[in-house]
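Translate structure to sequence.
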């Protein structure tokens, strides 16, 4: 099997309407998102730090090459989904890393979604102005 890349771990993460599929391979810490560079896809430092938090907690930042496919949502939702997927992928490898990630809240799926708009209202919570007369 010459030229075949062996995946160490793969996982799916979700946040709001964003879905991210991540695959980890042994490597040097290179991260690609939708076949683009990590810094190019997530321009803000805060999002990049948030995404790499599970790897920093488990000291595996420069151990894996990460390839991610994202769809749906916006940048912040995709960042949360990618963090969730990375956490799940790293947790698959060993139970002691799973305990570290779980205690830091990385394995919990953030279930908050946008509230639906109700009929007869301008928004989810907003009401039309009340007139007594």
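Result:
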């Amino acid at each position: 099997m010459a030229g075949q890349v062996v995946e160490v771990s793969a996982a799916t993460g979700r946040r709001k309407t964003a879905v991210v599929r991540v695959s980890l391979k042994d490597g040097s810490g290179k991260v690609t998102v939708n076949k683009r560079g990590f810094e190019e896809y997530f321009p803000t430092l805060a999002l990049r730090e948030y995404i790499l938090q599970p790897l920093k907690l488990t000291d595996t930042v420069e151990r894996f090459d990460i390839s991610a496919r994202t769809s749906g949502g916006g940048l912040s939702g995709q960042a949360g989904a990618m963090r969730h997927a990375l956490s799940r992928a790293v947790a698959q490898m060993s139970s002691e890393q799973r305990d570290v990630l779980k205690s830091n809240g990385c394995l919990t799926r953030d279930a908050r979604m946008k509230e639906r708009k109700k009929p007869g209202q301008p928004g989810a919570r907003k009401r039309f102005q009340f007139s007594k007369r």
